[in-house]
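Both lines are given unchanged directly below:

***
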Amino acid sequence: MSTSKQANAGWFTWEIQPRNRSMSQALGVDLYELTSRKPRAIKYVILFAKTLSIIFSKNIRVIYTQNPSIVLSFVAVCLKLFFGRTVIVDAHNAGIYPLEGKHKLLNGIARFISRNANLVIVSNQYLAEQVTAWGGRPFVFPDPIPPIANHPHSAPLPVDQKFALFICTWAADEPYFEVINAAKQTPDISVYVTGNYKNKLSQDYINSLPDNVRLLGFVSEEEYVHYFSNAQVAIDLTTRDHCLVCGAYEAAALGVPAILSDSKVNRDIFNKGFVYTLNNAQDIASSIQAAISLRHSLVIDIEQFKLEHTQLISSLVLRLKHQVNELQN
């Protein structure tokens, strides 16, 4: 999707995350991905200094920030209050409910950010209702389809061509044990699992894994796309309410059907080319088998979803730009 550049605007993030790239590209905003491997206290000082340096040296008047980082978004809102900048916060699920909504101070900061930002972008209507309840101004904008390049010859093809790819970061909201237990119920279908598992699984547990489970560990972006594009089906699950996973959009980009957690928000957004499952082993196993048996029709459906979603994003880009222009007038 090509779009004209927004003058005096910058999109800031303190991590590498696909939505930042696709959103900033769709809106025509320069992206500043600022990261540091220093300890947290030092890292925040470094990133704070870099962010302010870019904003003031380039005279950026419209600041887009990803939340999380809640620190970055708090800084941006302070720049609005003290220096008159226009601030648009792209709030992920964890930006609305930091640490699963269990930390009183962070919850208060999240509400402060939502109330005081000029606009809060959220991925779905359910998060928008929360922002409105806090006195903020939401704008619902699902992820654009990410610009993923396929690398068909970049890595060895898997020996077993019939496999499901479980997209996993081994985070607390991912039911990875349930997926592994589901694999035990589908011995004729291999399940490849991404992500660094070494601090999550004991060696005894790894040794006990069934033959059809393959732990890929950390893979490069090129390898990740290669495995993804060769999978029969992708699996990306979460126990979080109202959370839209990046793997669903990546599946649409590559034309690979995907299995998602059964939630109303997933059924609303990802309405073609996807299979929905409860987050338990038995239902996941049934969904894997169903997705592979229906793969031909699901591939056609997900291509249709990609087309319709791209058209939706184009219309939302125009509406969002119009709102941002109104905020500056």
Summary: DSSP finds 13 helices and twelve strands in the chain. The first strand starts at residue 9 and ends at 13. Residues 30 and 309 are 23 Å apart (CA to CA).
